[in-house]
Structures are given as C-alpha cells and as structure tokens.
Here is the input.
Amino acid sequence: ELKVEQNPLFLSMQEGKNYTIYCNYSTTSDRLYWYRQDPGKSLESLFVLLSNGAVKQEGRLMASLDTKARLSTLHITAAVHDLSATYFCAVDEGNEKLTFGTGTRLTIIP
Amino acid sequence: DAGVIQSPRHEVTEMGQEVTLRCKPISGHNSLFWYRQTMMRGLELLIYFNNNVPIDDSGMPEDRFSAKMPNASFSTLKIQPSEPRDSAVYFCASSEGLSRWDFGPGTRLLVL
Here is the structure.
C-alpha cells in the first residue's frame, strides 16, 4: 500500500523567511502533485511533477522531485501572509489514483 | 470553463436518511474521482471512473455507499442509510490524463 508522508504537519513561520516542506512516498513513482487548500475551500493545483529531477516554480513557491529518493520538496521563499494555507502532496503510482499526504498547515506570522 | 460542479454544497440530514451527492466533471475529462476529507483520515479516494466505467471502488467504506456515472457529464454518490460517521466533505475531481486534476468545491455533509 502506497504511503505518502509529509513533514512538518504544522509550520509557523515569519514573513520574509524561507522554509521547505517535505513529501516522502513509499513506492516508485514519477508522478507527483502539489495542492493548496484554504480553510473551507477546495484543492487548488499548484504543481505537476512528472519526471525525476523536475523543478517547477511559481512566484515564491518552488517544487522539485527526486524519484530515486522518493522525495519531493516544496520550497517557500520570503514568505508572505497570503501563503498561509494547507499544502498537500499527492502521488500517482501509475494507476491514475492519487494518494494524498497528510497535509502541512502553514501559518505565516507578520 | 465552469470547472467541476458539485451539488449540493451543504447537506444536513438525519441518521438513516438517503443522501445523494452530484457531480458534473469538466467537459472532455475522461476520468472522475470521488474523495472524502475528514480531520481524522485526511483525503481518501472512494471510487474512480474512466470513460464512465468504475475502475476501482476499493475505497468505498461499505455497502451503504454506491456511485454511478451514467454518462460523461454526470456522476452521483449515494449513501443509504446515512450515519453520523459519514459526516465529511466529499470532493469530486476530474482529469484528462497526467497533466491536471481539477477538484470541485466539495459537498459538506453533516449527518445528525
């Protein structure tokens, strides 16, 4: 059974700081997705990573995938309050089923 | 494009009642997924369809849950009879392959 683990589960950080969220998964896959969820809202697609070494960037967020290490990272640069949300990674092990991580609740403190 | 449409957005019902959740996927997407989100269990895949055919329903918790996709533009998830432990947010998602999965706004279900 595929397991997807994120850490940390909770993260409070000051505005302007940098931090990284980690996503580990237990099976071979080169398909990984990052989503953002605001309280009471749906999931918004952030990044789609479909190969080893893939790196995607959008604004202050950058995601990368290392399929050999079964690890993806979501890096936040110079955090701003608007980035406060819960971030999920999800893995497709090749059968079109997305298995989600536990989520990381990010709070940006002024 | 209106995105994935779900109805109702909120549902409050009493234990034992039948509940039907509805989903309209994005036009052209050939896969449809039903997820459930709770604080305790996170996001769980219940069932998914490809080209209107159920492919994997191993996540459906029990026989009280059933899902149908009679055509490419409509799917239902039914719970009969409902129980308080079914209270959750139910998301429908659709995709056209590997590049993008789109989630609907969700149905917030409360069973009293």
Remarks:
- DSSP finds no helices and eleven strands in chain B.
